[in-house]
């Protein structure tokens, strides 16, 4: 059964990643406890855990405050994800791909093909691609069978904009942005091929290169801060920083 402390931690993390707090805002225990309908103790413990995750920082006046993330910090987190997922891909290729994993990965490829195969991607297509992308990456991480690696990826992906699930479907994005998506999904196809052939070094290289699209996605958001913040509120705590 989920403990109250865990529920409070999840709720506060969710509020942060939804842009509920502005950079530098003080996170006081009493108002947060009242907001969540709990005592101060689980809030205090949750805030300490969120500091360990790097989402908040100590306040000069006591307690904690919302961190300001710079674009450089997010770029670094995306790069770290690439290296960690590269390790996972190599492990999967070297261990061998079980039949069920192959079937699951290829189901993801088909979903992605449907999403990016349209003449112009709609919001629904972006949502389909985003769901597929989440499943695809998690399948490989789980199949690597390395607890420490899985935990490291999980912690890194809690930083805003660092996880593969971050997508920014915008109207009138034009053909150039859709080309990125087509290219990203082509990389998925190549990665599955490398995994199934047991090509560990190639699988690792492809997974590491794959985060280049996430870096381009971040650049795209930074160039359109107002639209990006509306679609992904967590960008509010990134856009205020310096490159």
UniProtKB/TrEMBL annotation:
Stretches assigned to coiled coil: none
Name of the protein described by the UniProt record: Putative HTH-type transcriptional regulator YdfH
This protein's record includes keyword DNA-binding: yes
GO molecular function, one term: DNA-binding transcription factor activity
Source taxonomy: Bacteria, Pseudomonadati, Pseudomonadota, Betaproteobacteria, Burkholderiales
Any single Pfam family the record assigns to this protein: FCD
Entry keywords, A to Z: DNA-binding, Transcription, Transcription regulation
Gene: ydfH_5
Stretches assigned to the HTH gntR-type domain: 2-69
């Amino acid at each position: 059964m989920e403990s109250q402390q865990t529920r409070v931690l999840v709720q506060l993390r969710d509020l942060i990643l939804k842009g509920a707090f502005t950079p530098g805002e003080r996170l006081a225990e009493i108002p947060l406890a009242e907001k969540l309908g709990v005592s101060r103790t689980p809030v205090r413990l949750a805030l300490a855990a969120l500091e360990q995750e790097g989402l908040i920082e100590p306040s000069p006046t006591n307690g904690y405050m919302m961190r300001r993330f710079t674009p450089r910090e997010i770029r670094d987190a995306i790069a770290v994800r690439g290296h960690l997922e590269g390790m996972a891909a190599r492990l999967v290729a070297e261990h061998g791909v079980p039949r069920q994993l192959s079937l699951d990965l290829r189901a993801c490829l088909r979903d992605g093909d449907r999403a990016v195969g349209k003449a112009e991607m709609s919001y629904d297509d972006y949502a389909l691609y985003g769901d597929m992308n989440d499943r695809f990456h998690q399948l490989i991480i789980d199949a690597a069978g390395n607890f420490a690696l899985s935990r490291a990826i999980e912690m890194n992906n809690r930083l805003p904009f660092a996880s593969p699930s971050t997508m920014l479907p915008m109207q009138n994005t034009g053909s150039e942005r859709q080309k990125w998506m087509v290219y990203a999904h082509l990389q998925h196809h190549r990665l599955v091929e490398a995994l199934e052939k047991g090509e560990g070094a190639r699988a690792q290289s492809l997974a590491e290169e794959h985060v280049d699209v996430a870096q381009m996605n971040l650049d795209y958001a930074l160039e359109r801060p107002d639209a990006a913040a509306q679609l992904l509120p967590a960008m509010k705590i990134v856009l205020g920083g310096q490159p």
